[in-house]
């Protein structure tokens, strides 16, 4: 049987916060919402929703206030290091100093050891909800 | 809802686990924001501690900015080399 700490954690995991209507988040857009004690950037990338904390690990800039998302150049050994444009619409750069992050994974492009928390975002009955 | 001016209400702190350092809300250490994976070639502790130091200073003094002025590119992104 779970102890009190486990029950509290489970209850917290199930808590949902409505942050808007689906129409508030058109595909290709993102916006900032406040949930409890933190700001979260909500991204709609081709109909998939993602949530990231609005804080850059570099110098704590407002990461999700970056105006646009973009892609990035990638090269892999398997493709003989051929450079290709990839992840279009999946990259956000911090407006303060330009450090870039892959939104679906939360991973920093320049420093892959840095990973942002990814908040669970779901769409139910036309509402966008964040689960904390 | 609590009013706050910065991105997260309350101070941040660092929690160390076996594989990574986490930056978390001091009031609720289970509520993490960033994970810094430990790796011999990556100063994870320094990154985490620098993030906490900068954020908490901004929180305590609303006029405090980051070490590198926003809108400029730092000479290095590594902590302590800004």
Structure commentary:
Chain A has 132 residues and is mainly beta. Chain A is 8% helix and 45% strand. In chain A, a hairpin with a 2-residue loop joins β10 and β11. Chain A is globular and about 45 Å long. Chain A starts with a helix and ends with a strand. The relative contact order of chain A is 0.22. The mean pLDDT of chain A is 91. Chain B is an alpha+beta fold and 82 residues long. Chain B has a domain of 51 residues. Chain B has 1 helix and 3 strands. In chain B, strands 1-2-3 form a 3-stranded antiparallel β-sheet, covered by helices on one side. Chain B is flat and about 35 Å long. Chain B starts with 11 loop residues before the first strand and ends in a 22-residue tail after the last helix. At the A-B interface, β9 of A face β3 and α1 of B.
The neighbouring-strand order within the major sheet of chain A is: 5-6-7-8
Number of strands of chain B: 3
**Beta-strand percent range of chain A:** over 45%
Major sheet details of chain B: 3 strands, antiparallel
Radius of gyration of chain B: 14 Å
Uncertain segments of chain B are: none
N-to-C SSE series of chain A?
Answer: HEEEEEEEEEEE
Please report the number of helical segments of chain B.
1
| Major sheet description of chain A | 4 strands, antiparallel
Shape of chain B: flat
List the secondary-structure elements of chain B in sequence, H or E. EEEH
Pair with the most extensive interface?
A-B, 30 and 37 residues
Q: Assign a percent range to the helix content of chain B.
A: 10-25%
What is this structure's SSE topology?
The complex is a heterodimer of chains A (132) and B (82).
Chain A: H1 4-14, E1 16-21, E2 30-35, E3 38-45, E4 48-53, E5 69-74, E6 84-93, E7 100-102, E8 107-108, E9 114-116, E10 120-124, E11 127-131
Antiparallel strand pairs in A: 1-11, 2-3, 3-4, 5-6, 6-7, 7-8, 10-11
Chain B: E1 12-16, E2 20-25, E3 28-37, H1 44-60
Antiparallel strand pairs in B: 1-2, 2-3
């Amino acid at each position: 049987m779970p102890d009190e700490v486990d029950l509290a954690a489970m209850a917290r995991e199930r808590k949902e916060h409505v942050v808007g209507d689906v129409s508030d988040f058109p595909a290709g857009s993102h916006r900032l919402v406040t949930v409890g004690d933190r700001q979260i950037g909500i991204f709609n990338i081709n109909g998939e929703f993602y949530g990231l904390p609005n804080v850059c690990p570099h110098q704590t800039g407002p990461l999700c206030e970056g105006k646009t998302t973009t892609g990035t150049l990638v090269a892999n050994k398997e493709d003989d290091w051929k450079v290709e444009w990839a992840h279009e619409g999946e990259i956000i750069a911090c407006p303060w100093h330009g450090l870039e992050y892959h939104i679906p994974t939360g991973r920093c492009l320049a420093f892959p050891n840095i990973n942002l928390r990814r908040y669970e975002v779901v769409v139910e009955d036309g509402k966008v909800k964040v689960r904390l | 809802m609590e009013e706050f001016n910065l991105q997260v209400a309350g101070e941040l702190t660092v929690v160390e686990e076996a594989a990574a350092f986490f930056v978390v809300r001091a009031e609720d250490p289970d509520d993490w924001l960033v994970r810094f994976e430990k790796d011999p070639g990556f100063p994870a502790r320094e990154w985490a501690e620098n993030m906490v130091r900068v954020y908490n200073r901004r929180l305590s003094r609303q006029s405090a900015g980051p070490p590198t002025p926003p809108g400029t590119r730092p000479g290095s992104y590594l902590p302590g080399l800004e």
